[in-house]
């Protein structure tokens, strides 16, 4: 055993035991003995990052160099990996301190600028030292009013109407088309300066030494913010009567009687509240309705924006701005929004007017007020229910008119409304049928694809449209039904009216009847081949436009009737003139390429008459001045081609203040005969290709809205 065990022991000593698994592995190299692994870069290049590969962080990195690709890094890179963290922190602290200093400097400069403005507002502009006695200089208050108008006016009022958004639903596109066609006929040889352009901001220094430009409206001097202190109850009543005669007869409002009965109390509250804290958002009552109503009347009387009208609007602006966050809208609040839309419409800002009407109408739809059963159940009082129905129909009509005039889609469809017609408001009833009739006629007669192929509207659709229009005229209430022959032939119809409100409504409905026909037939002239294939329709459209201009000219002889309603009447004038400009372009193209066809404009008497009417009132009307600038480009081409005479150009100092007053009164003595249009005028040498059906297709493609069968609705203002 011993030997055996000794043998065993000796064997064990000769053969040591096998090492364990942990002892068999090689020892890990000490991390501090070898070179350190390069840390990951803060931001990989786009090539490595997109493939999730390790990037060296160089510029360019090694991988991009190897593959010969462009090496680019993200825009906002992390700090350099070789930059110590302490240096990065110091740089960020320096940037923060510099930013704080910069913001503090900006705040300081803003306070200094505000203080400087307040000092300048109390400083009068000095008059020039030496001014000739025969020169009409601009008073300092006029310069301040012009500067204030530039700062406070909306961008739409500053730019020409042709530059803003517009399509077939507005006259702006037709003017763009006519301008493009006329500009392609011959090259301009002379530069025609059209008065009425907007004054640049850097020309304010020249206003003191230059004569008073009669084309700039100066009627906004009528009222300023201090006039409110001298306002009496009679003045407020007179302004309310002005509103009632212009807009109240069209869209009756139940609050007008309450405003007149409480005029003295509301006037005292108005004087206190105008210079104190403005009205809080969401609050609306008779006081806010009175403020915006007075602002509308002041603009209508003065022909443009006034300081007092602007101050009244600013005092109620928080009410409108807070309307978007109101869960419910009261009857007074909805009336206030309707008046606010009319105020924006008077200032030429149809976009804001459409937006305001949209909110008032949308909230009514959300509350279910356009359903008959909801109105009956929620408003048990008969008188209140009738006034609410009138207001809802006014929103429906104005939504169509404002959106179509601005080239925007409507917010209310025919199927959204299930209300009884306002029988007690004949004009509103007629207009409710009018907008529904116009929508159906536009969608069935005016078709984009048909006109692009050179085909005019079908005779059956046009005949049915005429039948509907005649039936609309027959179904009118007797108090508002107009006599077409009497309005067009009687020269004394507008001179001494016995009932101005009835005459105004009848003339307005007559012009609307003509305008819907103009707007339905006007797109035919946009496509030359379609116009050639429909000679009877375009001749009829030109004749209707001429009749409208002649009626407006006779209407302007009654100065009070026309002057305070220019904003409304200018929509009819612009639609008619736009069609005549397209007709002149059509004749000019046929004349150059020797195409047979009817001559639409045998003379330009009505076109010259319409331009004279605008020029006659633009010295005292911002609306006329805006409209004049819209027609300036195509009018310059007509003067260049010899179709129109430049009878509106005035030399400096030619028109005195008395002459301007004569223009404002509407009795300017025009001694020049109306320029006749000669169809054989000479355009000069020009090579033009024969006109085919697709010559103006590019223009027609952009005129229409994107829809399946039709291209929107016309501007029925």
TrEMBL record:
Pfam families: Fungal_trans (PF04082), Zn_clus (PF00172). PROSITE patterns: ZN2_CY6_FUNGAL_1 (PS00463), ZN2_CY6_FUNGAL_2 (PS50048). Keywords: DNA-binding, Metal-binding, Nucleus, Transcription, Transcription regulation. Residues 653-665 have a biased composition (Polar residues). One of its GO terms (biological process) is DNA-templated transcription. InterPro entries: Fungal_SecMet_Regulators, XnlR_reg_dom, Zn2-C6_fun-type_DNA-bd_sf, Zn2Cys6_DnaBD. The keyword Nucleus applies. Residues 44-73 form the Zn(2)-C6 fungal-type domain. CDD domains: fungal_TF_MHR (cd12148), GAL4 (cd00067). Residues 1-36, 123-161, 649-671 are annotated as: Disordered. One of its GO terms (molecular function) is zinc ion binding. This is Zn(2)-C6 fungal-type domain-containing protein. The lineage of its organism: Eukaryota, Fungi, Dikarya, Ascomycota, Pezizomycotina.
């Amino acid at each position: 055993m011993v030997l055996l065990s000794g043998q065993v022991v000796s064997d064990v000593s000769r053969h040591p035991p096998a090492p364990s698994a942990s002892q068999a592995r090689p020892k890990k190299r000490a991390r501090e003995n070898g070179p350190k692994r390069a840390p990951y870069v803060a931001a990989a290049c786009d090539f490595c990052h997109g493939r999730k590969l390790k990037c060296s962080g160089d510029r360019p990195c090694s991988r991009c160099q190897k593959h010969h690709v462009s090496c680019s890094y993200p825009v906002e890179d992390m700090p350099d990996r070789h930059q110590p963290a302490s240096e990065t922190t110091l740089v960020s602290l320096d940037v923060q301190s510099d930013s704080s200093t910069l913001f503090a400097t900006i705040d300081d400069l803003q306070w200094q600028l505000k203080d400087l403005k307040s000092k300048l507002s109390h400083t009068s502009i000095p008059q020039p030292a030496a001014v000739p006695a025969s020169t009409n200089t601009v008073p300092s208050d006029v310069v301040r009013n012009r500067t204030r108008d530039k700062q406070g006016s909306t961008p739409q009022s500053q730019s020409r109407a042709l530059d803003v958004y517009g399509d077939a639903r507005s006259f702006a596109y037709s003017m763009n088309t006519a301008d493009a066609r006329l500009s392609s006929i011959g090259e301009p040889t002379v530069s025609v300066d059209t008065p009425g352009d907007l004054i640049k901001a850097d020309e304010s220094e020249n206003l003191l030494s230059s004569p008073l430009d009669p084309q700039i409206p100066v009627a906004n001097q009528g009222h300023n913010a201090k006039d409110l202190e001298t306002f009496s109850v009679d003045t407020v009543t007179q302004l309310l009567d002005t509103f009632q005669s212009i807009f109240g007869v069209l869209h009756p409002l139940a609050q007008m009687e309450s405003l007149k009965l409480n005029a003295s109390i509301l006037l005292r509250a108005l004087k206190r509240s105008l210079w104190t804290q403005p009205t809080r958002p969401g609050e609306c009552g008779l006081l806010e309705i009175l403020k915006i109503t007075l602002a509308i009347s002041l603009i209508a009387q003065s022909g443009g924006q006034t300081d007092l009208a602007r101050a009244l609007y600013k005092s109620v602006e928080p009410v409108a701005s807070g309307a978007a966050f109101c869960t419910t809208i009261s009857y007074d609040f909805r009336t206030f929004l309707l008046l606010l839309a009319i105020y924006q419409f008077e200032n030429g800002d149809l976009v804001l007017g459409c937006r305001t009407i949209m909110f008032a109408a949308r909230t009514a739809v959300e509350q279910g007020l356009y359903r008959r059963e909801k109105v009956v159940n929620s408003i048990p009082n008969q008188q209140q229910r009738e006034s609410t129905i009138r207001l809802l129909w006014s929103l429906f009509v104005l939504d169509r008119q404002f959106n179509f005039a601005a080239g925007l889609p409507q917010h209310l469809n025919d199927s959204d409304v299930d209300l009884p017609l306002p029988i007690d408001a004949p004009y509103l009833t007629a207009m409710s049928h009018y907008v529904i009739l116009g929508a159906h006629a536009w969608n069935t007669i005016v078709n984009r694809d048909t006109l692009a192929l050179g085909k005019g509207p079908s005779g059956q659709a046009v005949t049915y449209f005429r039948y509907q229009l005649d039936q609309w005229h027959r179904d009118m209430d007797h108090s508002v039904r107009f006599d077409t022959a009497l309005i067009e032939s009687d020269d004394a119809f507008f001179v001494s009216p016995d009932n101005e409100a009835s005459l105004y409504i009848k003339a307005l409905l007559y012009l609307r009847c003509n305008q819907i026909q103009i707007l339905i037939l006007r797109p035919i002239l946009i496509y030359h081949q379609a116009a050639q294939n429909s000679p009877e329709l375009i001749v009829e459209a030109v004749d209707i436009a001429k009749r409208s201009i002649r009626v407006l000219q006779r209407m302007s002889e009654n100065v009070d009737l026309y002057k305070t309603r220019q904003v409304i009447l200018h929509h009819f004038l612009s639609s008619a003139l736009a069609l005549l400009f397209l007709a002149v372009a059509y004749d000019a193209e046929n004349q150059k390429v020797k195409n047979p066809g009817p001559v639409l404009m045998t003379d330009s008497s009505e076109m010259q008459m319409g331009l004279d009417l605008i020029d006659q009132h633009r010295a005292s009307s911002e609306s006329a001045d805006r409209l004049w600038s819209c027609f300036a480009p195509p009018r310059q081409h007509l003067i260049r081609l010899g179709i129109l005479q430049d009878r509106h150009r005035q030399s400096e100092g030619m028109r005195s203040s008395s002459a301007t007053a004569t223009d404002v009164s509407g009795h300017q003595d025009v001694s020049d005969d109306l320029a006749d249009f000669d169809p054989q005028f000479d355009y000069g040498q020009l090579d033009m290709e024969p006109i085919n059906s697709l010559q103006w297709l590019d223009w027609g493609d952009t005129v229409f809205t994107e829809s399946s069968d039709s291209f929107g609705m016309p501007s029925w203002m």
